[in-house]
Each structure stands twice: as structure tokens, then as C-alpha cells.
Amino acid sequence: MSKFELGITTFAEVMPDLKTGKTISYDERINQLIDEIVLADQVGLDYYGIGEHHRKDFAASAPHTILAGAARLTKHIKLGSAVTVLSSEDPVRVYQNFATLNALSRGRAEIMAGRGSFIESFPLFGYDLNQYDRLFSEKLDLLLQIRDHEIVSFEGSTRAEIDHLGVYPRTQYPLPIQVAVGGTPASVVRAANYGLPLFLAIIGGYPRMFSPLVDLYRKTYKERGYDPKDMHISVHSHGYIAESHEDAVETYFPSIKQAMDIIGKERGWSTYTRQTYDASRSIEGALFVGDPEYVAKKILHLRKTLGINRFALHVPVGQLDHDKVMKTIELLGTKVKPIIEAAIALENKV
To answer: Which among 39, 133, 143, 240 could bridge 252 via Cys, Cβ 3.0 to 4.6 Å?
Structure first.
């Protein structure tokens, strides 16, 4: 198995402060992200991903621009979208934006392409939700063609045709494209059919329930003739780390409850409860909340359960003071990562 990577994902949440009721400005939140990325690089994390959204409570509608702002301030960390809602984007512009980011970062850019669990971008950019699957399928085909060929042609139903035209700038570095999946077998098969890395969003329930999807991906990947050594599987899940386990547990609950209740009201979910929270932060649950030792233990358990190559901690969810987000990033790099690396090194000796 390739090197195990640790990282951060965020949607750049902008929600009212739970104590004061005041909301941070979009400008300030976007600039906070640069500080987070720089810190993540300094403490040795491998990846930082920003999710594209187009709604009031998230600030990152243009992740590539924010990542470009951090590219020349960092040296090693991979910079990616988490996700790019490809169905409502133009693949030509997606490639151009990330090829530019790849130049600025000297080969550290990644595209995570997804269909979008939030659908606000579809009416905003004039796309028909009835074409939800076709939009993604056609645009992924085109994006891969653009990445792999300077001159492209396209004829489909989701955008204007392209007749043997060049797309520039070309990037001299490899540009990884991953497929983000929320739990749909067809999406897992699509990623495997293309031989693309798989990125699973596990934000509820029990991660072991995703084992059949991972098995399906591996099986399909091999059947299509791709080298298993090139297979790459990532997971991102919500979480929060503090020096004290009890402090982490008590601090994070109001934050995640705020976010889950907002989204749950839109989607018809039940109110988020302490019982749900406590079950989710158990060793088998999907929340990675606690002190560094406990979070490291959970990540190692997840790695063993699903055989993943990368874990990304999604923080914050809901309103969480910036200094607490920064502390989580610091602890993930300086405390959690060494525990995981030591455990894997010992495992490899056996």
C-alpha cells in the first residue's frame, strides 16, 4: 500500500456565532483559509481540500482561487477541491483553473469531481436537475479528454460542441482527478471504470457499512485491467481535536448540531441529538472527535476497516472559533500523524 496521507477538508462555513449571534464576513473567512492551509503545510499534513458551494452559509464558491492564494506560501501540501461540482461547471474552465493552480503550486493541484449533494448551483447556472447524472457523466468524459489531450472535440447534450480546439494553458505536471462519492454504487463503478481515485464522504452512520462499496470499487478497478498498485482511496469525515478529550467532546457538539439542524431542516431530517452525537463519536462511528490519541486510534481503525490511502478531517462543521480550527490542524499534524506513522511502521516490520 502507498504512503498513508492525512489532510483537512472544509466548506468555509460562515454561520452565526453560537454565543454572540454575530456572523463573520466572507472576506475574513476566506482569508482565514489561507492561514489554515499555511499551518497545515507547516505541521506536515499532506492535503488540504476546499469544497465548492453557492449558498449563504459557505464562503468558498471558487476554491481554486483560494488555493492559488496559498500556493506560493506553501511548499509540500497538496491543494485540491473537495469537491468541484462538475455537473454545473464548464470542464474547459475547470481544467484551465486547475492547470494554473498546478503551475503556481509546482504540481500540487488536485481536482475532486462530484455531482453535488447540495444542488443550489444547478438553478444558479441554469442547469436542469433532471439531467443530474448525464451532466456529470458527459462533463467527466470531457474533463478527462482535456487533461490528457491538448486538442479536443466534444459533441453532447450538456454544453456547446467543441470541434478540434486546443485548451490552454497546459500543465507540465500530472493533474490528478478524483471522483467524490457519497454512497452510490453506480458512482463507485464509474470511478473504477475510468481508473480514477475514489474519495468517499462518510459523514454519518458507521464506516464499516461502506466496505461493500470499497470492495465493488476494487473489484471493478481490477476487472477493467488497471494496476492495483495505482489504486487510491480516500475518506473524509467530520471531526475536531483538542488536547483534552472531554473538552473536544463538549466543544464540538454545539457546532455540529448547529450545522446539522440547518441542513436537516432543508432535507427533512430529525433534529440532531446528543444521543446521535455520542454514538457517532464511538470507535465505530463516523465522527472523529477527541484528543489526539483517540482520533489517531479511530483513523487507524478506519484504515484497517476500509484499506484507505488518505484520511481528511473535515473541520469546522457549523460555527467554530478560528483558533480552535487552527489548534485542530496543529494537533492533527504534530500529535495524530506521528502516532499513525509509528503504528504503520511497526505494522510493516511484522
So the answer is: 240
